[in-house]
Amino acid sequence: MAVVCGRRDDGSLSDQILAIVPSLRAFAVSLTNDPVRADDLVQDTVLRAWSHIDQFEPGTNLHAWLFTILRNLFRSEYRRFKREVEDADGYYAARLRTCPDQQAHLDFEDFRAALLKLPLEQREALLLVGAQGMSYEEAAEVCAVAVGTIKSRIHRARSMLAELLDLDAGGEIGPDSVTKAALAAAE
Fold this sequence. Notes:
The protein has helices at 12-32, 35-51, 62-83, 91-95, 101-117, 120-131, 136-143, 147-164, 177-186; strands spanning 2-4, 7-9. The chain is mostly helical. The protein is elongated, with a radius of gyration of 32 Å.
C-alpha cells in the first residue's frame, strides 16, 4: 500500500489513472494533431493529477477530472504558443534589425529645441493639427482665426522647422546614411 500526498493508495487509484491514459492520449492527439505533443500533454496531465491528487474527491468521476486537467493544460499551452513565433534555427531572429535608439533620442531632442524656437502662434497651430490630429477647421476654431491663417501658420512653422533642423527637401529625421547602409548590408 503506497501513500500518495498523505492519502493511502491501495493501487486502485493509480490503476484507474493508468487505464484512462489511452483515452487521454487519443483526446490529446485530436486536440494537437501531433502525437509527440500529445504524449507530452498526457504526461503533464498525469504529473499534474498526481501532484494534486489530494484535491480529487473519492467517488467522483476520475475520468472527467483528468480530461479537465488535460483540456486546461492544452488551452494554457495554446494561448502561450499563439503569442510566440517558432524559430528553432534562429532564422527569424537573425533577420530582425533595429536602428540604434541613440540617434532617435538625439533627433527628438533637436526637434523639441527647434519647436520651442517657433513663434507661439505657429507652434500652437502646428501642434493642434500635427500632434493633436485636428482638422484645419477645428484648429481655426480653437485659435479663433480664419482657416487660411491656420494653413499659413502651419506652412511657416514647417518651413522654419526644416530650416532649424537643417533638412533639405528630400531629407528626413531618422537614421543617418551610415546606419542605413550598415542595416542594408546585414540583410
